[in-house]
Write a structure and sequence with these properties.
It is a single chain. It contains 10 helices and 10 strands. It has 283 residues and is of the alpha/beta class. The strands form 3 sheets. It has a 5-stranded parallel beta sheet with strand order 7-6-5-8-9, sandwiched between helices.
Length: 283
């Protein structure tokens, strides 16, 4: 039997449901902890960041307009596909991080479980975060949470998969779209996750994944007028105060760096409350 040639994987960006190379043509090498070459990853540019924001802005209306039940079903489908491709993610985490297969498998399991956990909140968070308000007069007064819009995210840099899931999933629950800058050290799992999203029912543009230097890309996302929320979970090593200042210029709400543990607070962080008044029937 003749020996087959290896077919190395090309890791690209994920923008608007497609997998383009960086418009700059730049790449950077990903190596194992022992210095073994693994792959080339795209080095995203300012133009790539702008394109990703444009795609995310265009996807907000359709995604936020879906029913909460439908969003939950779509997110659960992502978890199903992750489960089916578990072996691939384990191999990538082992190669990038140098951890054992059992540790990598535990990380993938945790990522899948978190995705399922957030999927379950899609048709429930509104009842918890919204409320009926007591008012004087013959009126109903109800506050309903709505998505903020486009959320820019700097993913945790020391996590290959679970950190990425922990910042993307809660933003999607409420109907936001996202532009996420993946871990610079561990980008392979991010693009593989993008492939999962592309083959699930998540509409193109709802999630956009950039690989490369957060220090280079994050300032352009933070200052972009079409970015409505900024999650700096993985920006602890950056000048995140400057990013916060840039975001403030366009009235963008900001989550500071920190461990993105699963919580209802991460879901509601990028929501707005719409208050509705309605007269009571006097009949």
């Amino acid at each position: 039997m003749s020996k087959r040639l290896a077919v190395p994987k090309t890791y690209k960006l994920y923008i608007g449901g497609a997998f383009p190379r960086s418009e700059s043509g730049r790449t950077y090498e990903i190596s194992s902890p022992k210095g073994v070459f693994l792959a080339n990853a795209a080095l995203a540019s300012r133009k790539d960041a702008r394109d990703a924001v444009t795609a995310a802005r265009g996807a907000v209306k359709g995604w936020s307009g879906a029913t909460a039940y439908n969003r939950g079903q779509v997110l659960y489908r992502v978890a199903e596909i992750l489960e089916g491709r578990k072996a691939q993610f384990v191999d990538e985490i082992v190669a990038q991080s140098g951890v054992s297969a059992s540790v990598a498998a535990a990380e993938v399991d945790e990522a899948i479980d978190r995705w399922v956990w957030y999927a379950g909140w899609c048709d429930k968070f509104g009842q918890v975060a919204g409320n009926g308000n007591p008012v004087a007069g013959p009126y109903f007064n109800i506050s309903v949470p709505e998505p903020t819009g486009v959320v820019g995210i700097v993913a945790p840099q020391d996590s290959a998969l679970v950190g990425l899931v922990s910042v993307i999933a809660p933003a999607l629950v409420t109907g936001n779209s996202v532009v996420v800058v993946a871990s610079q050290k561990h980008p392979l799992s991010a693009i593989s996750l993008a492939e999962v999203l592309a083959t699930s029912d998540v509409p193109g543009g709802v999630v956009n994944v950039l690989t490369g230097s957060p220090a280079e890309i994050a300032p352009w996302i933070a200052s972009h007028p079409d970015v409505h929320g900024l999650d700096l979970a993985g920006a602890g090593d950056l000048d995140w105060v400057d990013l916060q200042v840039k975001a403030a210029e366009t009235l963008t709400r900001v989550l500071p760096p920190g461990e993105p543990a699963p919580s209802l607070e991460r879901i509601t962080a990028f929501t707005e409350l719409k208050t509705v008044w309605h007269t009571k029937s006097l009949v």
